[in-house]
Amino acid sequence: xxxxxxxxxxxxxxxxxxxxxxxxxxxxxxxxxxxxxxxxxxxxxxxxxxxxxxxxxxxxxxxxxxxxxxxxxxxxxxxxxxxxxxxxxxxxxxxxxxxxxxxxxxxxxxxxxxxxxxxxxxxxxxxxxxxxxxxxxxxxxxxxxxxxxxxxxxxxxxxxxxxxxxxxxxxxxxxxxxxxxxxxxxxxxxxxxxxxxxxxxxxxxxxxxxxxxxxxxxxxxxxxxxxxxxxxxxxxxxxxxxxxxxxxxxxxxxxxxxxxxxxxxxxxxxxxxxxxxxxxxxxxxxxxxxxxxxxxxxxxxxxxxxxxxxxxxxxxxxxxxxxxxxxxxxxxxxxxxxxxxxxx
Length: 344
Ligand code: PHE
Fold this sequence. Notes:
This protein has two domains: 2-89; 108-340, Bira Bifunctional Protein, Domain 2 (BirA Bifunctional Protein, domain 2, 2-Layer Sandwich), CATH 3.30.930.10. Helix 1 packs antiparallel against helix 2, helix 1 packs parallel to helix 4 (53-89) and helix 5 packs across helix 10. The chain has helices at residues 2-17, 21-32, 37-43, 53-89, 108-122, 136-139, 171-181, 223-238, 291-296, 313-321, 334-337; strands spanning 126-127, 133-135, 159-161, 164-166, 187-196, 208-218, 244-251, 254-263, 280-289, 305-312. Strand 3 and strand 4 (164-166) form a beta hairpin. The chain is rod-shaped, with a radius of gyration of 43 Å. By secondary structure, it is α+β, with helices and mostly antiparallel strands. It contains eleven helices and ten strands. Phenylalanine is lined by residues 169, 171, 213, 251, 254, 285-287, 308-310.
Protein backbone atom coordinates (compact mmCIF):
# COMPACT_ATOMS: atom_id res chain seq x y z
CA UNK A 1 0.00 0.00 0.00
CA UNK A 2 2.90 2.25 0.80
CA UNK A 3 4.38 1.58 -2.62
CA UNK A 4 1.08 2.39 -4.32
CA UNK A 5 0.92 5.73 -2.55
CA UNK A 6 4.49 6.50 -3.56
CA UNK A 7 3.86 5.69 -7.21
CA UNK A 8 0.74 7.83 -7.15
CA UNK A 9 2.50 10.78 -5.59
CA UNK A 10 5.36 10.61 -8.06
CA UNK A 11 2.97 10.29 -10.95
CA UNK A 12 0.91 13.30 -9.85
CA UNK A 13 4.06 15.35 -9.44
CA UNK A 14 5.27 14.34 -12.90
CA UNK A 15 1.88 15.35 -14.31
CA UNK A 16 2.08 18.74 -12.63
CA UNK A 17 5.60 19.24 -13.95
CA UNK A 18 4.83 18.27 -17.54
CA UNK A 19 5.53 21.50 -19.44
CA UNK A 20 3.90 20.59 -22.70
CA UNK A 21 1.77 17.96 -24.42
CA UNK A 22 4.80 15.89 -25.48
CA UNK A 23 6.11 15.74 -21.92
CA UNK A 24 2.68 14.78 -20.65
CA UNK A 25 2.52 11.96 -23.18
CA UNK A 26 5.81 10.65 -21.79
CA UNK A 27 4.35 10.71 -18.28
CA UNK A 28 1.32 8.82 -19.53
CA UNK A 29 3.51 6.08 -21.02
CA UNK A 30 5.69 5.97 -17.95
CA UNK A 31 2.82 5.40 -15.51
CA UNK A 32 -0.15 4.09 -17.44
CA UNK A 33 1.61 2.24 -20.28
CA UNK A 34 1.87 -1.55 -20.59
CA UNK A 35 5.34 -1.46 -19.12
CA UNK A 36 4.53 1.45 -16.81
CA UNK A 37 4.81 1.70 -13.06
CA UNK A 38 1.13 1.07 -12.33
CA UNK A 39 1.13 -2.06 -14.45
CA UNK A 40 4.22 -3.04 -12.43
CA UNK A 41 2.17 -2.73 -9.23
CA UNK A 42 -0.53 -4.95 -10.74
CA UNK A 43 1.98 -7.68 -11.41
CA UNK A 44 2.94 -7.68 -7.74
CA UNK A 45 -0.52 -9.04 -7.01
CA UNK A 46 0.48 -12.63 -7.87
CA UNK A 47 2.86 -12.81 -4.97
CA UNK A 48 0.31 -11.61 -2.35
CA UNK A 49 -1.70 -13.88 -0.10
CA UNK A 50 -5.20 -14.51 -1.43
CA UNK A 51 -7.07 -12.47 1.19
CA UNK A 52 -5.02 -9.34 0.50
CA UNK A 53 -5.54 -9.44 -3.26
CA UNK A 54 -8.96 -7.67 -3.49
CA UNK A 55 -7.95 -4.70 -1.34
CA UNK A 56 -4.65 -4.39 -3.21
CA UNK A 57 -6.32 -4.63 -6.62
CA UNK A 58 -8.83 -1.97 -5.66
CA UNK A 59 -6.10 0.33 -4.41
CA UNK A 60 -4.09 -0.04 -7.65
CA UNK A 61 -7.20 0.62 -9.73
CA UNK A 62 -7.98 3.64 -7.63
CA UNK A 63 -4.43 4.90 -8.17
CA UNK A 64 -4.69 4.30 -11.90
CA UNK A 65 -7.93 6.26 -12.03
CA UNK A 66 -6.49 9.17 -10.04
CA UNK A 67 -3.40 9.39 -12.25
CA UNK A 68 -5.42 9.08 -15.43
CA UNK A 69 -7.83 11.84 -14.28
CA UNK A 70 -4.89 14.08 -13.42
CA UNK A 71 -3.36 13.43 -16.86
CA UNK A 72 -6.69 14.31 -18.57
CA UNK A 73 -7.03 17.52 -16.57
CA UNK A 74 -3.44 18.57 -17.33
CA UNK A 75 -3.96 17.63 -20.96
CA UNK A 76 -6.96 19.99 -21.21
CA UNK A 77 -4.96 22.72 -19.51
CA UNK A 78 -1.96 22.32 -21.81
CA UNK A 79 -4.17 22.27 -24.90
CA UNK A 80 -5.76 25.50 -23.84
CA UNK A 81 -2.32 27.02 -23.26
CA UNK A 82 -1.12 25.79 -26.67
CA UNK A 83 -4.12 27.35 -28.36
CA UNK A 84 -3.68 30.64 -26.53
CA UNK A 85 -0.01 30.65 -27.55
CA UNK A 86 -0.91 29.95 -31.17
CA UNK A 87 -3.51 32.72 -31.18
CA UNK A 88 -0.98 35.08 -29.66
CA UNK A 89 1.65 34.20 -32.26
CA UNK A 90 -0.66 34.35 -35.23
CA UNK A 91 -2.35 37.57 -34.21
CA UNK A 92 -3.04 39.96 -37.10
CA UNK A 93 -2.48 43.62 -36.47
CA UNK A 94 -5.35 45.16 -38.36
CA UNK A 95 -4.01 48.64 -37.73
CA UNK A 96 -0.93 47.99 -39.89
CA UNK A 97 -0.93 49.79 -43.24
CA UNK A 98 -2.04 47.32 -45.94
CA UNK A 99 -0.95 46.86 -49.54
CA UNK A 100 -3.12 49.28 -51.47
CA UNK A 101 -4.98 47.76 -54.36
CA UNK A 102 -5.01 50.18 -57.26
CA UNK A 103 -8.50 50.43 -58.71
CA UNK A 104 -9.01 52.01 -62.10
CA UNK A 105 -11.48 54.81 -62.66
CA UNK A 106 -13.77 55.49 -65.56
CA UNK A 107 -12.26 57.79 -68.18
CA UNK A 108 -14.04 61.16 -68.16
CA UNK A 109 -14.98 60.80 -71.84
CA UNK A 110 -16.50 57.38 -71.19
CA UNK A 111 -18.37 58.90 -68.23
CA UNK A 112 -19.90 61.52 -70.50
CA UNK A 113 -20.69 58.87 -73.10
CA UNK A 114 -22.40 56.70 -70.48
CA UNK A 115 -24.39 59.63 -69.13
CA UNK A 116 -25.63 60.38 -72.65
CA UNK A 117 -26.43 56.73 -73.31
CA UNK A 118 -28.33 56.54 -70.05
CA UNK A 119 -30.37 59.62 -70.84
CA UNK A 120 -31.24 58.62 -74.39
CA UNK A 121 -31.93 54.96 -73.63
CA UNK A 122 -34.32 56.31 -71.00
CA UNK A 123 -36.09 58.23 -73.77
CA UNK A 124 -36.44 55.12 -75.92
CA UNK A 125 -33.38 55.47 -78.14
CA UNK A 126 -31.08 52.62 -79.13
CA UNK A 127 -27.29 52.89 -79.25
CA UNK A 128 -25.75 52.14 -82.66
CA UNK A 129 -22.16 51.32 -83.51
CA UNK A 130 -20.11 51.52 -86.67
CA UNK A 131 -16.54 51.20 -87.98
CA UNK A 132 -13.87 53.82 -87.40
CA UNK A 133 -12.23 52.92 -90.71
CA UNK A 134 -15.04 54.03 -92.95
CA UNK A 135 -15.92 54.20 -96.61
CA UNK A 136 -15.98 57.59 -98.28
CA UNK A 137 -19.52 56.65 -99.29
CA UNK A 138 -20.94 56.67 -95.74
CA UNK A 139 -18.77 59.43 -94.36
CA UNK A 140 -19.41 61.84 -97.25
CA UNK A 141 -21.45 60.68 -100.27
CA UNK A 142 -24.59 59.57 -98.45
CA UNK A 143 -24.32 62.60 -96.20
CA UNK A 144 -24.83 64.79 -99.24
CA UNK A 145 -21.16 65.68 -99.62
CA UNK A 146 -20.13 64.42 -103.08
CA UNK A 147 -16.50 64.38 -104.23
CA UNK A 148 -15.12 67.89 -104.87
CA UNK A 149 -17.91 69.43 -102.80
CA UNK A 150 -16.41 72.40 -100.95
CA UNK A 151 -17.91 71.14 -97.66
CA UNK A 152 -15.26 68.42 -97.64
CA UNK A 153 -12.79 71.12 -96.66
CA UNK A 154 -14.70 71.59 -93.38
CA UNK A 155 -13.26 68.29 -92.24
CA UNK A 156 -9.66 67.62 -93.16
CA UNK A 157 -9.57 63.88 -93.60
CA UNK A 158 -7.13 61.02 -93.03
CA UNK A 159 -7.44 58.93 -96.19
CA UNK A 160 -6.27 55.32 -96.31
CA UNK A 161 -7.02 55.06 -100.03
CA UNK A 162 -9.30 57.21 -102.23
CA UNK A 163 -12.39 55.39 -100.97
CA UNK A 164 -11.36 54.51 -97.42
CA UNK A 165 -10.78 56.91 -94.56
CA UNK A 166 -10.90 57.37 -90.82
CA UNK A 167 -14.41 58.64 -90.19
CA UNK A 168 -14.44 62.39 -89.62
CA UNK A 169 -17.78 62.45 -87.84
CA UNK A 170 -20.31 60.08 -86.29
CA UNK A 171 -22.66 61.13 -89.09
CA UNK A 172 -21.13 58.20 -91.00
CA UNK A 173 -22.87 55.83 -88.56
CA UNK A 174 -26.07 57.79 -88.95
CA UNK A 175 -25.90 57.15 -92.72
CA UNK A 176 -25.32 53.43 -92.20
CA UNK A 177 -28.35 53.25 -89.92
CA UNK A 178 -30.53 55.19 -92.37
CA UNK A 179 -29.51 52.82 -95.16
CA UNK A 180 -30.14 49.77 -92.94
CA UNK A 181 -33.67 50.97 -92.07
CA UNK A 182 -34.65 50.75 -95.77
CA UNK A 183 -37.21 53.52 -95.46
CA UNK A 184 -38.90 52.15 -92.34
CA UNK A 185 -39.69 54.57 -89.52
CA UNK A 186 -39.51 55.42 -86.69
CA UNK A 187 -35.76 55.64 -86.15
CA UNK A 188 -34.50 56.81 -82.78
CA UNK A 189 -30.86 56.25 -82.06
CA UNK A 190 -27.61 57.70 -80.87
CA UNK A 191 -24.17 56.71 -82.17
CA UNK A 192 -21.25 57.60 -79.91
CA UNK A 193 -17.69 56.98 -81.03
CA UNK A 194 -14.22 58.14 -81.96
CA UNK A 195 -13.65 60.35 -84.98
CA UNK A 196 -10.49 61.62 -86.66
CA UNK A 197 -9.44 64.82 -88.41
CA UNK A 198 -6.13 66.14 -89.69
CA UNK A 199 -5.98 68.92 -87.14
CA UNK A 200 -2.81 70.09 -85.43
CA UNK A 201 -3.13 69.22 -81.77
CA UNK A 202 -3.38 72.15 -79.38
CA UNK A 203 -5.36 73.02 -76.26
CA UNK A 204 -8.69 72.82 -78.09
CA UNK A 205 -7.93 70.55 -81.07
CA UNK A 206 -7.07 66.88 -81.24
CA UNK A 207 -6.62 64.71 -84.35
CA UNK A 208 -8.68 62.08 -82.52
CA UNK A 209 -11.77 62.99 -80.53
CA UNK A 210 -15.22 61.71 -79.68
CA UNK A 211 -18.68 62.60 -80.85
CA UNK A 212 -22.16 61.39 -80.13
CA UNK A 213 -24.67 61.64 -82.92
CA UNK A 214 -28.41 61.62 -82.38
CA UNK A 215 -30.91 60.76 -85.09
CA UNK A 216 -34.69 60.66 -85.09
CA UNK A 217 -36.76 60.02 -88.21
CA UNK A 218 -40.53 59.60 -88.28
CA UNK A 219 -43.75 61.33 -89.11
CA UNK A 220 -44.15 64.96 -88.17
CA UNK A 221 -40.74 65.32 -86.55
CA UNK A 222 -40.03 69.04 -86.24
CA UNK A 223 -37.39 71.49 -85.13
CA UNK A 224 -39.39 71.85 -81.91
CA UNK A 225 -38.75 68.16 -81.13
CA UNK A 226 -35.06 68.79 -81.67
CA UNK A 227 -35.14 71.75 -79.33
CA UNK A 228 -36.98 69.82 -76.61
CA UNK A 229 -34.57 66.91 -76.92
CA UNK A 230 -31.50 69.10 -76.74
CA UNK A 231 -32.93 70.98 -73.77
CA UNK A 232 -33.35 67.66 -71.95
CA UNK A 233 -29.78 66.80 -72.85
CA UNK A 234 -28.44 70.16 -71.67
CA UNK A 235 -30.25 69.76 -68.35
CA UNK A 236 -28.83 66.30 -67.84
CA UNK A 237 -25.28 67.29 -68.73
CA UNK A 238 -25.07 70.75 -67.19
CA UNK A 239 -27.75 70.83 -64.51
CA UNK A 240 -31.41 71.77 -64.37
CA UNK A 241 -32.61 75.09 -65.73
CA UNK A 242 -30.48 75.16 -68.91
CA UNK A 243 -31.92 76.84 -71.95
CA UNK A 244 -30.85 76.17 -75.53
CA UNK A 245 -30.85 78.57 -78.42
CA UNK A 246 -30.46 77.95 -82.13
CA UNK A 247 -28.34 80.01 -84.49
CA UNK A 248 -28.49 79.44 -88.24
CA UNK A 249 -25.60 77.43 -89.61
CA UNK A 250 -24.72 75.11 -92.45
CA UNK A 251 -24.19 71.37 -92.74
CA UNK A 252 -24.66 69.60 -96.07
CA UNK A 253 -26.73 66.82 -94.50
CA UNK A 254 -29.21 68.99 -92.60
CA UNK A 255 -31.61 71.71 -93.72
CA UNK A 256 -32.15 73.95 -91.91
CA UNK A 257 -28.93 73.61 -89.96
CA UNK A 258 -28.30 75.15 -86.58
CA UNK A 259 -25.49 75.83 -84.21
CA UNK A 260 -26.76 75.16 -80.69
CA UNK A 261 -25.83 77.19 -77.62
CA UNK A 262 -26.59 76.31 -74.00
CA UNK A 263 -27.17 79.00 -71.40
CA UNK A 264 -23.95 79.18 -69.42
CA UNK A 265 -24.11 76.78 -66.45
CA UNK A 266 -21.40 78.72 -64.61
CA UNK A 267 -23.11 82.12 -64.41
CA UNK A 268 -26.65 81.03 -65.23
CA UNK A 269 -26.59 83.18 -68.35
CA UNK A 270 -25.45 86.38 -66.69
CA UNK A 271 -22.05 86.43 -68.37
CA UNK A 272 -18.71 85.19 -67.01
CA UNK A 273 -15.21 84.30 -68.16
CA UNK A 274 -16.23 80.83 -69.37
CA UNK A 275 -18.93 82.16 -71.69
CA UNK A 276 -16.85 85.27 -72.41
CA UNK A 277 -19.58 87.51 -71.10
CA UNK A 278 -22.22 86.31 -73.56
CA UNK A 279 -24.19 84.05 -71.19
CA UNK A 280 -24.18 81.32 -73.86
CA UNK A 281 -21.84 78.47 -74.72
CA UNK A 282 -21.68 76.91 -78.17
CA UNK A 283 -22.05 73.24 -77.77
CA UNK A 284 -23.10 71.35 -80.88
CA UNK A 285 -24.31 71.27 -84.47
CA UNK A 286 -27.72 70.02 -85.47
CA UNK A 287 -30.54 70.35 -87.94
CA UNK A 288 -33.41 68.69 -89.78
CA UNK A 289 -32.18 65.77 -91.86
CA UNK A 290 -31.82 67.06 -95.44
CA UNK A 291 -34.66 65.75 -97.65
CA UNK A 292 -32.08 64.69 -100.21
CA UNK A 293 -30.32 62.56 -97.56
CA UNK A 294 -33.65 60.93 -96.69
CA UNK A 295 -34.38 60.26 -100.39
CA UNK A 296 -30.88 58.87 -101.07
CA UNK A 297 -31.45 56.42 -98.25
CA UNK A 298 -34.85 55.30 -99.51
CA UNK A 299 -37.17 57.42 -97.36
CA UNK A 300 -40.12 59.38 -98.68
CA UNK A 301 -39.28 62.91 -97.62
CA UNK A 302 -42.89 63.98 -98.19
CA UNK A 303 -44.10 61.55 -95.54
CA UNK A 304 -41.37 61.64 -92.97
CA UNK A 305 -38.84 64.01 -91.55
CA UNK A 306 -36.11 63.83 -89.00
CA UNK A 307 -33.64 65.69 -86.89
CA UNK A 308 -29.99 65.01 -86.19
CA UNK A 309 -27.38 66.44 -83.91
CA UNK A 310 -23.72 65.78 -83.26
CA UNK A 311 -22.08 66.72 -79.99
CA UNK A 312 -18.37 66.64 -79.14
CA UNK A 313 -17.78 64.67 -75.96
CA UNK A 314 -14.50 66.42 -75.15
CA UNK A 315 -16.23 69.77 -75.31
CA UNK A 316 -18.96 68.59 -72.94
CA UNK A 317 -16.44 67.03 -70.53
CA UNK A 318 -14.20 70.13 -70.62
CA UNK A 319 -17.11 72.38 -69.71
CA UNK A 320 -18.58 70.03 -67.15
CA UNK A 321 -15.35 69.31 -65.29
CA UNK A 322 -13.48 72.54 -65.94
CA UNK A 323 -10.70 71.00 -68.06
CA UNK A 324 -8.72 73.55 -70.04
CA UNK A 325 -6.66 71.37 -72.38
CA UNK A 326 -8.13 68.67 -74.63
CA UNK A 327 -4.78 66.85 -74.73
CA UNK A 328 -5.36 65.78 -71.11
CA UNK A 329 -7.83 63.19 -72.37
CA UNK A 330 -5.22 61.41 -74.43
CA UNK A 331 -1.94 61.62 -72.53
CA UNK A 332 -2.95 59.01 -69.93
CA UNK A 333 -1.63 60.89 -66.92
CA UNK A 334 -3.06 59.04 -63.92
CA UNK A 335 -2.96 62.21 -61.81
CA UNK A 336 -5.50 63.64 -64.24
CA UNK A 337 -7.53 60.50 -64.87
CA UNK A 338 -8.02 59.66 -61.18
CA UNK A 339 -9.88 62.88 -60.54
CA UNK A 340 -13.19 61.95 -62.01
CA UNK A 341 -14.56 58.99 -60.09
CA UNK A 342 -16.29 61.26 -57.59
CA UNK A 343 -18.15 63.25 -60.21
CA UNK A 344 -21.39 62.55 -61.97
N1 PHE B 1 -21.36 66.02 -88.25
C1 PHE B 1 -21.31 67.37 -87.77
C2 PHE B 1 -19.89 67.69 -87.33
O1 PHE B 1 -19.11 66.78 -87.13
C3 PHE B 1 -22.22 67.59 -86.61
C4 PHE B 1 -23.69 67.41 -86.96
C5 PHE B 1 -24.29 66.20 -86.79
C6 PHE B 1 -24.42 68.43 -87.48
C7 PHE B 1 -25.61 66.02 -87.13
C8 PHE B 1 -25.74 68.29 -87.79
C9 PHE B 1 -26.35 67.09 -87.60
O2 PHE B 1 -19.51 68.82 -87.18
